[in-house]
Amino acid sequence: MATNPVVLFSTQGTLALPNHPALNGGCCAKCGSVFFPMQTYGCERCGSQQLEARTLSGRGKLICSARVHMSADQLRPAPFVVGSIKLDDGAVVRSVLAVEPDFKLAPGTVMITILVPETRPDRGEFDLRFTPAAKEA
Ligand SMILES: [Zn+2]
Question: Which of the chain's termini has less CB crowding within 10 Å, N or C?
Answer without folding.
Answer: N
